[in-house]
């Protein structure tokens, strides 16, 4: 009997969460439509044109671009000393 009630509780919880998510998604859709309608009406009333805006990424060279293709230089490895520890305040 306890399994029966727990399965009903899980089903009700899923249904409530699904309905809440659907209401949230629908409210976002309505808010977007109202915003688009408001911007369109504001542009029409002010006499301005609605411009389609295009997002453009700046052209950047790829990795390794601009690096000279000179000869490979072999250098000797040297140890870099660690910085001294910070002084302890007392």
Q: How would you describe this structure to a colleague?
A:
- With 90 residues, the chain is mainly alpha-helical.
- It has a domain at 24-49.
- The chain is built from 1 helix and no strands.
- The chain has one helix spanning 2-46.
- The longest helix is centred in the N-terminal third of the chain and has 45 residues, at 2-46.
- The chain is flat, with a radius of gyration of 32 Å.
- The mean pLDDT is 84.
Using brief descriptors, characterize the structure shown.
single chain; 90 residues; mainly alpha
Note the topology.
Blueprint: H1 2-46
Transmembrane segments: 15-47
Keywords: Membrane, Transmembrane, Transmembrane helix
Short description:
This protein has 90 residues and is mainly alpha-helical.
Give the tally of β-strands.
0
- Strand content of the residues, in percent? under 5%
H/I helix tally = 1
Mean pLDDT comes to 84
Largest sheet: none
- Output the structural class: mainly alpha
User: Distance between termini?
Assistant: 69 Å
- What is the succession of H and E elements? H
Keywords: Membrane, Transmembrane, Transmembrane helix
